[in-house]
Structure formats: structure tokens, C-alpha cells
Amino acid sequence: TTTKDRKIPILKAFVKVPLVSITSSNSSQESFTLCTSPLHNKAKYLVQWIEFHRLVGFSKFVIYNTTDTDDYLSTIINIYTQKYPGLVDVVQWNFSTLGLVDVLPTRYFQTEALHDCLIRYGDQSEWLGMLDLDEYIVPLPPYETIVDYVHANFGR
């Protein structure tokens, strides 16, 4: 295992983050996991977002849910759970029940969700990303999938 430091811009600041080369003997490790930013009344976009990212190579989705408690979200999750076990996990992300208030109310503790995603899924996935439901990763030619791009550019 080798460790290097790389400066990564986070919230308009630079933080030294150690880069660690990880080789896992866990054959069930997910290759590409994608976490949502906290959902806030956006469940209607979820199926399109998941299906697009499945097509480009993501194999696990983690949904951070803040307020969507309607039957629509439950129906979506139940369908994915039955048809594709293990594809989608839901993390209930409601800090208001704890009496906490985000300094930027429209963020819904997004930075903390990113950290939670890294802690929960970092050792289960070779590659991990976090996107809003209105953001899409689109591989450009000559790459058809994110897997093709990563293997060609990062050797894994």
C-alpha cells in the first residue's frame, strides 16, 4: 500500500487528502458506487437517474433521503429491491428530527452526507461518487462507460 498527498478542492478550500492504493480480496466488492446528494422532494427523478447511470457502468446506488416519505419513493425502492437485490440502499438523512439546522438551509447537510457516504461505502467500493439528481456522468468518446474510462486512464 502506498500513500501520497493530493490537494483536492472542497468547499473552495484545499484539504490534504491521503491517496491510498487499495487492493481488496473481497470478490463481492462493488466496482462503482454512486451516492445521491440528500433528496428533497425529488423522488420523481430517481428512476431516470439510476437507469442512466446503470447504463454507463455504476453498480450500486445509495439514496440519501431527507423528506421524501410518500408512496412514490417507497414504490421505487421496493421495485428495485425485489428486481435487483443490493442495487439500491436508502439512508434516511433527516437532521431536523435532531434539532440541527444547516447553515445553508437548501443544502440539507450535503457535505455531511458526502462524508457519511465515504465512511459507509468507501471500503465496499473501488470507486465512489456523489451527485445531485440533476447531474449526470456522461462518458465521452472513445469511452462508452465509466468503467471503460477508469480502466483506460487509471489502470484498474
From TrEMBL:
Protein origin, superkingdom: Eukaryota
Gene Ontology CC terms, in alphabetical order: cytoplasm; membrane
Protein name: Glycosyltransferase family 92 protein
EC number(s) per entry: 2.4.1.-
Membrane topology according to the record: Single-pass membrane protein
Main location: membrane
Subcellular location: Membrane
